[in-house]
């Protein structure tokens, strides 16, 4: 018996990635693919890489005959959608927006869906707030330290994201003529993902109380985030490596690389890779993910797998693009 | 006494290039920089690379106290602008749109501004219709043959343009996430520039009467056009080389390369380079230009130089970006 | 009982793609991963995207306890390898080089492994000569016409390839500083793949006897080939579409798009997509593949699937990178 | 009377940029263009963008009949060259390597050639050690603070460089297939340019004694460096802006932008642009340069202009590539 899945907002980037993943997921049947603007159109007319893979069409209708609902709409819209469209008891919800990530606002039915932080709670969750892309990448770099209470000084973070992180809306900073061969800083010290990162660090270390200095950058590539972060630390290189290896030992998607890493190792996969180096008294952590997969739709599927008792990697053994 | 220049449509790509060129042109004084949407704003707030180079501001006012007017507005808009804003007798006009390129529609006051075709007529012209970018690149590859009556069979042309050729308007095909690492064909056999190319070939060879099969492509780079074209020919490789070298002998911006060429040889310059090879009975011609310079604003300045009796290269000895 | 596979030349690009595919292929067990230069090293130290996916190591040893051998070495080296390392009777060989593609040189044991041309012969073949990347892309565009005897005039082909087509060797034309934002023509009218294309067209149409004019180009992207080709034709647009749809009706990896296409629709998949347009008396065919998958390792797995009686798509339902 | 210039190592990237600049410099005559590996060859056969601009050839001969010698060879080679080829008294030398940047090793004849730091000393210098590219970009961001003694806490710097920063040598990290769409960290906390930066900060502020934490990154573009750096500071945003505006008031190539900046504002120019923002108690400084121009050959020409009493901008009013 397959899991019946519905997708809201399926004409966007994260919706498209949901489709690319679920179409090949052996335990999922796509019940409906909702889009307000594309009702009736072939999915492969919008996500044209799916030509030949599916004859599904977008629909404007909603159905309650599903087991799980993925919300792939914008921030604010997810909350509004659920208010206007009450979902039948028993249907699990996985929301990719930021609307339910902060516990205070979301209430107790929602679990923050970062398996490397909350795997057991996710298994039994009703609703999942899927983490942000920067937030995932940075947390993968910091959780092992926080779990041991080892973040005692300000953390310095610089992270560069691909253009898909900004969605498919047209804007001057997503214009090819501008972005190609370009680089820029935005929302310095003020990115909205800092809140969910802080919440997670406090969850692991109630004493956590140092600043996270975060400089986000727009890169001239389409997929992926590379975060370089460092903090003063007493750990030796060997001790630091062990902290990370121990923390991620049971996690199938997050790996510790002994060698230096580069962004394309994870592009088009749902993996995260971290690498740690010690320089004087500073511990450097480099963390990479694909913003649309481990940073969005891949993690959503990982959460679904956990919620439905499947192998965490089901449907997510993806071929890296590598080049 | 400097040439007083006005620019209409100066917030766009070709308008910006006009500014980048004229600011450093030793014989030109910029009289006004017109923009409907940016009146009062600093030029360097829109063309941000000009920060520190100029304190000029856009204006919504027009002045007739100029020697030359550059029209950098869209197709159709140039004609309309001139109808609504009659220009004082004696002011020279250089229009970068396609509105006056075809002799039938433009009337006798307009000269098609391709110096490699019409240099002497340009010197005495009142008004110049500046050629299209694809049209310039392809004509540089074909004019020497046409001048000798050597195009007797269908010509096969494939040319790939950078994203700036599509202007700064936002569109799905100029979205970075789509265009990066992508390639596509558009307007196959039907590009509007075929008309002006045909007109020029007939000008040189009244017998010219074969098809030009033209496949335009959108490349994933910002600047430049590379056109590869071939035609059946009796010429030997040496004869063909001589035809091209002779034709371009007196032209300071168009060069014949004995070695194979690549697009970046001309990027950020106002040069054209052609390379010819003979393969069996086919004569292959590769032609490269920067679409915004030799294909637009650089050629406009070249035309201005000719019209005002200046050295054709004045203000156009540009450093190639090379990489 | 899984198929035991060995890979020769597994440190290169096509060898890496073989590994990325076979690691997730449900019916394959990797017996050994041969590399002369990397014996003993972790695969994930060379193909670093495989970190966390496999603990396999390269070996310098060869084993005969396999069912299929993939040769991922350079042109010339494959033939030499087989001469120096006789393979036990019964082991199937799939060679990705060009050494056995031409029937005259290869002898009768070898079948040219293009499923869209030779599917039934592949099922029973001992040895497979896997087609070239340009050759695959262009043949997908021409086979349906040839099968009906409809190629009666010269065919004009321009195709642009990504950098991975040139392998991982370091060279001036694969230097990032040169290739980024660049475009160039190479081996015009003279690419070695013309031979295998011609052989296939004659196989389908013994009367085939017109020139294929082929201009290959180096693009500034990593993966994929887009070929634009045209030929004079009496077919209407509708008739042409039907010819292509009929020909590919039973083929799971090659699709006909009614809409215009762009390269990224197939990147990181093993699909081919073709699109046909009629312009005057010219029939335009655009064809796209990923050069490393449908143009190399993906097609090798497709051939293996056919040879071992598996579903042709087994292990090849790949998530497109899309962006 | 023009300045006679000789160039050593003129087949490399910085040598090529020297040529591109000096060919159009109104006060310079190129005396010789030295290359060990290309003697006798046309310059335009190596720097192919110069086709049509010069008929000069590389030479293996050295001449002492020059006014200034530019050394564009690798680190270590410059020192060795001067030991083996004593230069006649009175010839000024501008060395682009790092061999003479540190005062202790270089001796008193050498001046560190950063005009924003040492303009007056450069005017009368015999020999100039041209600064490194990262070093220039970062110093432009820090000099104004150091000059006021305002750097009292650790500085956190992340800077991303284009591929030309690594020169034209072939290497895995400059392979297009690897670098395109990629990002990586290298030499974290340990880049050799930290020494010259520290030396300059001490020159301005003898009390300077805090760590510079520097994470260099390899970007997937060809030209340019963007550095984002921050430090705890008591300055208000307005005060900080004034500190920078005052410091750079008389410097024609370094500008302070009130708006946020992006890398392409300076690509293919010899400008630097800095932008400052205050966030809580942290002062963020973003600094951009073209690594081959303000970071190498452009700055070398700027130094030459100062040494010979020319307008500092002579030959350096470059058209930005902008896109």
Automatic annotation (TrEMBL), chains A, B, C, D:
<dbReference type="GO" id="GO:0005737">
    <property type="term" value="C:cytoplasm"/>
</dbReference>
<comment type="function">
    <text>Catalyzes the NADPH-dependent reduction of N-acetyl-5-glutamyl phosphate to yield N-acetyl-L-glutamate 5-semialdehyde.</text>
</comment>
<keyword id="KW-0963">Cytoplasm</keyword>
<dbReference type="GO" id="GO:0006526">
    <property type="term" value="P:L-arginine biosynthetic process"/>
</dbReference>
<feature type="domain" description="Semialdehyde dehydrogenase NAD-binding">
    <location>
        <begin position="4"/>
        <end position="125"/>
    </location>
</feature>
<protein>
    <recommendedName>
        <fullName>N-acetyl-gamma-glutamyl-phosphate reductase</fullName>
        <ecNumber>1.2.1.38</ecNumber>
    </recommendedName>
</protein>
<dbReference type="InterPro" id="IPR023013">
    <property type="entry name" value="AGPR_AS"/>
</dbReference>
<dbReference type="GO" id="GO:0051287">
    <property type="term" value="F:NAD binding"/>
</dbReference>
<dbReference type="Pfam" id="PF01118">
    <property type="entry name" value="Semialdhyde_dh"/>
</dbReference>
<dbReference type="GO" id="GO:0070401">
    <property type="term" value="F:NADP+ binding"/>
</dbReference>
<keyword id="KW-0028">Amino-acid biosynthesis</keyword>
<dbReference type="InterPro" id="IPR000534">
    <property type="entry name" value="Semialdehyde_DH_NAD-bd"/>
</dbReference>
<dbReference type="GO" id="GO:0003942">
    <property type="term" value="F:N-acetyl-gamma-glutamyl-phosphate reductase activity"/>
</dbReference>
<keyword id="KW-0055">Arginine biosynthesis</keyword>
<comment type="pathway">
    <text>Amino-acid biosynthesis; L-arginine biosynthesis; N(2)-acetyl-L-ornithine from L-glutamate: step 3/4.</text>
</comment>
<comment type="similarity">
    <text>Belongs to the NAGSA dehydrogenase family. Type 1 subfamily.</text>
</comment>
<dbReference type="Pfam" id="PF22698">
    <property type="entry name" value="Semialdhyde_dhC_1"/>
</dbReference>
<dbReference type="InterPro" id="IPR050085">
    <property type="entry name" value="AGPR"/>
</dbReference>
<feature type="active site">
    <location>
        <position position="133"/>
    </location>
</feature>
<dbReference type="InterPro" id="IPR000706">
    <property type="entry name" value="AGPR_type-1"/>
</dbReference>
<dbReference type="InterPro" id="IPR058924">
    <property type="entry name" value="AGPR_dimerisation_dom"/>
</dbReference>
<keyword id="KW-0521">NADP</keyword>
<keyword id="KW-0560">Oxidoreductase</keyword>
<dbReference type="InterPro" id="IPR036291">
    <property type="entry name" value="NAD(P)-bd_dom_sf"/>
</dbReference>
């Amino acid at each position: 018996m397959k899991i019946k899945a519905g997708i809201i907002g399926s004409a966007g980037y994260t919706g498209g990635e949901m489709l690319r993943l679920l179409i090949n997921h052996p335990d999922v049947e796509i019940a409906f693919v909702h889009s307000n603007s594309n009702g009736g159109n072939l999915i492969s007319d919008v996500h044209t890489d799916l030509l030949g893979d599916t004859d599904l069409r977008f629909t404007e209708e909603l159905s309650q005959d599903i087991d799980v609902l993925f919300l792939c709409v914008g921030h604010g819209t997810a909350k509004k959608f659920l208010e206007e469209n009450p979902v039948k008891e028993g249907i699990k919800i996985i929301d990719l927006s930021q609307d339910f990530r902060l516990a205070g606002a979301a209430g107790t039915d929602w679990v923050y869906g970062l398996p490397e932080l909350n795997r057991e709670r996710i298994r039994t969750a009703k609703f999942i707030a899927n983490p942000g892309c920067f937030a995932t990448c940075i947390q993968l770099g910091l959780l092992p330290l926080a779990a041991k209470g080892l973040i005692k000084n300000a953390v310095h973070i610089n992270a560069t994201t691909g253009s898909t992180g900004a969605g498919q809306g047209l804007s001057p900073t997503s214009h090819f003529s501008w972005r190609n061969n370009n680089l820029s800083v935005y929302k310095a010290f003020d990115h909205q993902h800092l809140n969910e990162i802080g919440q997670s660090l406090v969850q692991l270390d109630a004493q956590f109380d140092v600043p996270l200095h975060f400089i986000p950058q727009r890169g001239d590539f389409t997929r992926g985030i590379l975060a370089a972060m460092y903090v003063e630390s007493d750990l030796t290189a060997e001790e630091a490596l062990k902290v990370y290896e121990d923390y991620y030992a049971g996690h199938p998607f997050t790996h510790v690389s002994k060698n230096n890493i580069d962004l394309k190792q994870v592009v088009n996969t749902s993996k995260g890779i971290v690498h740690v180096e010690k320089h004087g008294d500073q511990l450097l952590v480099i963390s990479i993910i694909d913003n649309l997969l481990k940073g969005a739709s891949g993690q959503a599927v990982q959460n679904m797998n956990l919620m439905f008792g499947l192998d965490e990697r089901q449907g997510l053994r993806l071929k890296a693009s590598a080049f």
